[in-house]
Structures are given as structure tokens and as C-alpha cells.
Design goal:
about 250 residues, mainly alpha, 2 domains, two-stranded antiparallel sheet, 13 helices, 2 strands, about 50% helix, binds zinc ion
């Protein structure tokens, strides 16, 4: 009986793409030392913990197949009249298209994913952020590890408390910095003191070791927060506000 390996997650695809585009990648076959090394790296990472078939999990054959899948969507390859291995995921294609014209960013992201995963304290911290559907939808493009750091930062209790206290003492109320929604005004006593915090620093600029300052946080209502996460690397609190008020 064969057990299917879990589908590739965005962080893993980013690492594979980074090898695919690397100028000294070498040939796409399971004997290539770089492919073997990536297979080892993927096994060492804590990205996917559910591994029904540990033996086959991201083995050199699996990594080779993933890189061949990229070829199927690579115009440079297909224009030569060749075909890659079809059967890649939608996410493969999406990430391929996003990063093929921005290789420096791809490299930076890949290095940062590896760095996050080597930092035991950070891995521990972000493991407290649950893997919900939102992560799949929202973090598809920028990678789970970065997205989880974002969520971890904006949920960090002490800093959120400080931010809320600061706003209370300054404005005497808590309103959404995007749409001005006021939970207390709308829900009465039940909504008193309620607001969410959004971390302003774009994921791609998120350093693994910076400490959250209250200026990095924006107070937002749940709706606006969800929308901000829909395009987390491009939408700022200010740009969404402007869009809404136009
Ligand atoms: Zn709002
Ligand atoms: Zn947020």
C-alpha cells in the first residue's frame, strides 16, 4: 500500500524554486548533489510535521519531480519545444510566476526561511500559531513561516496591551485606523476595549530578530484586518484607508 506524501507547502516550494533558478543548479536528476542536499534540508525543516511515509518524504526523486514540474510552466523551457513534467500544483505555478522575474527577492525569502527554521526560539514561538485555513489562503504567496511570525508579533500580549493603553489614553476610544469602526459604539458594553492589532512591517521586510515596537502595530477592526491579510505584502493601512475613502 502506498501512502501519499503531503502536498508541498509554499515555504518548501520557495526553497525548491530557489534551487531551480540557481545559476549553478546542475541537472535535474536525483543524483545531483544539490538536489540531494535540498532533499535533506526539507527533511530537516519543521515545515511539514505530518509525514505518513517518512522514507519517501521529499526524497531526491520527489525533489527532482518538483523541479521537473517547474519546467512544465517555465516559458524558457517550453519555448524550446520541450515539455516538463505536468502535474504540478496551482501553487507551484503561482509562485513560479511571481518569482521568476524577481530572483533576488526569491533568494532573500529562501535564505530567511532557512534562518527562521534554524532559530529554535522562533520555531517554538511560531508553533503556537495554529495552522488554520486562513494561513493557507493568506500565506500562499509569502510563505507560512513569515506569515506566522507576523501573526505571532501582532498577538504578542504585552505589546498589544501597550498599544491599546496608548490609544486609550490618547484618544479615549479605540477605532479602526482604516475605516474608523468603533466596537463600543456599535456593540455597546460588549465591544468596549475590543480591537485587533495588525503588524505593519511587510513580511518581506520582516527581520527575524527585530522586536515589535508599538509604532509597528496598527489598530484595526476584524474586517479590515482580514482584508489587509488578503494582500499582506502590498496593502498598507494607509493605502487601504485611502481606497476606502475614495
Ligand atoms: Zn476597519
Ligand atoms: Zn495582521
Amino acid at each position: 500500500m502506498s501512502t501519499r506524501n503531503p502536498k508541498w507547502q509554499s515555504d518548501e516550494i520557495i526553497l525548491a524554486l530557489n534551487l531551480y533558478f540557481s545559476p549553478d543548479r546542475g541537472s535535474i536528476d536525483s543524483k545531483n548533489p544539490k538536489i540531494i542536499a535540498l532533499s535533506q534540508t526539507l527533511n530537516d525543516l519543521e515545515i511539514v510535521t505530518n509525514r505518513p511515509d517518512a522514507e519517501k518524504f521529499r526524497n531526491p526523486n520527489g525533489v527532482t519531480l518538483k523541479l521537473s514540474n517547474f519546467r512544465a510552466v517555465d516559458p524558457e523551457y517550453t519555448k524550446q519545444g520541450k515539455k516538463g513534467m505536468t502535474g504540478g500544483s496551482k501553487l507551484d505555478e503561482e509562485l513560479f510566476k511571481k518569482y521568476r522575474n524577481d530572483l533576488p527577492q526569491l533568494k532573500k525569502l529562501a535564505e530567511s526561511i532557512l534562518k527562521i527554521n534554524k532559530d529554535a526560539a522562533l520555531v517554538q514561538a511560531i508553533s503556537t500559531i495554529e495552522e488554520d485555513e486562513t494561513i493557507w489562503d493568506d500565506a500562499a504567496v509569502e510563505g507560512q513561516a513569515h506569515y506566522k511570525i507576523h501573526k505571532y508579533r501582532e498577538r504578542s500580549r504585552s505589546i498589544v496591551k501597550k498599544k491599546i493603553q496608548w490609544a486609550w489614553s490618547k484618544f479615549g476610544k479605540l477605532t479602526c485606523e482604516v475605516c474608523d469602526f468603533d466596537f463600543e459604539e456599535h456593540y455597546g458594553e460588549l465591544g468596549r476595549g475590543f480591537i485587533e492589532c495588525h503588524h505593519r512591517v511587510p513580511l518581506s521586510k520582516l527581520e527575524t530578530n527585530t522586536i515589535t515596537k508599538i509604532d509597528n502595530l496598527a489598530l484595526v477592526c476584524s474586517n479590515c484586518h482580514r482584508i489587509l491579510h488578503k494582500d499582506i505584502d502590498n496593502l498598507s493601512v494607509e493605502s487601504l484607508r485611502e481606497m476606502l475613502h475614495r
